[in-house]
Amino acid sequence: MAVKNSASAHAKRSRRKDAGAFSLIPKLLKNPKTAMALALLFIDALLVSFIIAYVPYTKIDWDAYMSQVSGFLGGERDYKNLKGDTGPLVYPAGFLYVYSAIQYVTGGQVFPAQILFGILYIINLGIVLLIYVKTDVLPWWALSLVSLSKRVHSIFVLRLFNDCFAMTLLHAAMASILYQRWHLGLIIFSAAVSIKMNVLLYAPPLLILMLQAMNISGIISALAGAALVQIVLGLPFLVSYPIEYISQAFNLGRVFIHFWSVNFKFIPEPIFVSKEFAVSLLIAHLVLLAFFAHYKWCKHEGGLLNFLCLRIRSYFSTSSSSLPKTLKKEYITTTMFVGNFIGIVCARSLHYQFYSWYFYSLPYLLWRTPFPTLLRVFLFLGVELCWNVYPSNSCSSVLLLCLHLVILWGLWSSSPENPCVSDKSLSRKDK
Question: Could you tell me the EC number(s) of this protein (predicted)?
Fold first, then answer.
């Protein structure tokens, strides 16, 4: 009798478990954003498959990537000797590991690589949609905007740029941070930097968020984890040709070719390549970051300087103010996307693949402005139009700059928000 009762109870538990599993799907679909996200993933997967099958591949950097990887796999550790038909290697070591794996899987052939990048596109889109669903900013129908870029589809599956891997990892880092997994987020963030340096545009707002959310031990250990990633990945080059590696892979002073620039094409080339123009943009970048940090991100702490003083004081006290805090998902996303967008506005040169650096943040940023919906959509379509003018010209670059400045003004005009959900200790693994 006891055995029979036990079996009956087990069967009931199994039926309840199965019923719960089946009831989960209707619950998910009741949320229009979740349903829209799933539909977009399915439709975009079909679209990407169609693009790979029927749209001709465009040869740009793939052969250069494969040449640089072949040199690395052949035993070369001097970064100045790792070259392709577009010039010497200028990306950190993570790039070599990623494209070495791609070369191993695909044999260096383009078509299987396109399939891999198609899968990467869907993974990245899924992570971005997760961020959008978890942050209650856009209406459900506006999620479709993240799938509407002709240029971004091309960047992923027709050009095979390393920007795709860097931004997928960056979005994964953001998703981890949204769940308060700061250490994991910093490790993934560092991995993204190891593929392409543009990810560092997110570093200033990320540092502000860390100061707001973590105690001093958490900040030090998270930064140490990020630094360790760079050391481990770069170790083969750091122990053999450290100066060559650091100077090539982390060169912040490179001058891009004026012809390929999508922005500032209206600037005469002698001025465009001048050091004075670069320094002016850097100053503008730093000033804008300081203004947003003071008047927006640290507004509720009395401004940037007051916030820094309070944090330094709290690190040496035992009061509750020194405990980690849980930040709002919307605040985290807004701060990181705005910080990156400021860097985009002040970038001297934006090449076509650089659109992937901020395209996925555009709908979010637009819905963070006080603009009416019709203007938001107009600005989105205007930016997309500028990025699809080839080659870019003075008119398209002036229009792009104007659109960027309008969006930036809208972000500045929006009301600052309280960053914290509540003050409480985080779990042990996030301290």
Answer: 2.4.1.258
Give 183's contacts (C-beta < 8 A, 6+ positions apart): 218, 221, 222, 225, 429, 430
Amino acid at 382: G
Structure tokens that stand for 315 in this block: 């690190």
State the average pLDDT over residues 298-310: 89
CA distance linking residue 226 with residue 220, whole number of Å? 10
357 neighbors 167 (Cβ within 8 angstroms) = yes
Q: Which residues of 370-395 are buried (b: 16+ CB within 10 A; e: fewer)?
A: ebeeeebeebbebbbebbeeeebeee
Question: Helix, strand, or coil here: 84?
Answer: strand
Kindly report, residue by residue over 205-241, the tens digit of the pLDDT.
999 999 999 989 999 999 999 999 999 999 999 999 9
- Alpha-carbon gap, residue 190 to 170, rounded angstroms: 9
Contacts of 378 (CB under 8 A, 6+ apart): none
Token representation of residue 263: 């922005």
Please provide the DSSP assignment of 412-431 as one string.
HHSPP---EEEE-PPPGGG-
Q: Could you tell me where the DSSP H helices lie in 179-327?
A: 182-193, 203-213, 216-238, 242-249, 269-272, 275-292, 304-315
Structure tokens at 127: 């992570």
Distance, in Å, from the CA atom of 17 to the CA atom of 13, rounded to the nearest integer, reads 6
Instruction: Identify whether the C-beta of residue 315 lies closer than 8 Å to the C-beta of residue 216.
Output: yes
Among 182, 200, 184, 204, residue whose Cα is nearest residue 192: 200
Q: Residues 66, 108: contact at Cβ < 8 Å?
A: yes
Q: What is the CB-side half-sphere exposure of residue 76 using CA atoms within 13 A?
A: 18
Enter the tokens of residue 347. 């970038």
How far CA 342 is from CA of 153, 283, 336, 368, 405, in Å, comes to 24, 12, 10, 15, 10
The share of the chain scoring above pLDDT 90, in percent, equals: 77
Residue type, 405: L
Q: Is the pTM of this model over 0.85?
A: yes
How many residues would you count in the chain?
431
Helix axes 2-30 and 32-54, enclosed angle (nearest 10): 70
Task: Give the range among 155-169, 174-188, 261-275 with minimum mean pLDDT.
Answer: 261-275
Task: Count the neighbouring beta carbons within 10 Å of the beta carbon of residue 32.
Answer: 12
Dist CA 363 CA 371 (whole Å): 12
